[in-house]
């Protein structure tokens, strides 16, 4: 089951980073971020005919989510949305997925070469004995650098 989850996460990452050849070069910027608890994330910023938006958030391969019972779970997933638009250089994401009981809040300011912001991810999980555990990053800060295209080149 874990292999399937990892494979699906890899496919999601590939689909977030890939796209039509023209879209992969023009109008896409990728940023690599480190969080205040030492974990990693990536952001995909897209500029298209609808405007500038955060096209995807990808958690690092070993992203750990602490739970209220003292355990941790791996958070190997990414999120996409065509709806996370910027206001100026700042984007705010309030994401709620009721079926899996997931909540994510991101605020970020993206410049030509760097970005920074805050982040919180929370997920409720059902244990085998049908009790729940709440897993959350808590409030984190993050800083990022643009990795594609290289800063100073056109997008």
Structure overview:
14% of the residues lie in helices and 52% in strands. It is built from two helices and twelve strands. It is elongated and about 55 Å long.
Share of residues in strands: over 45%
The first-to-last residue Cα distance is 39 Å
Q: Report the principal-axis shape.
A: elongated
Considering DSSP H and I runs of 4 or more, what fraction of the residues is helical?
A: 10-25%
Instruction: Give unreliable regions as ranges.
Output: 1-25
Average pLDDT confidence is: 85
Number of helices: 2
For the largest beta-sheet, the strand count, sense and barrel status come to: 10 strands, antiparallel
Task: Give the structural class.
Answer: mainly beta
**What is the succession of H and E elements?**
HHEEEEEEEEEEEE
Rg, Å, rounded: 16 Å
Let me know the number of strands: 12
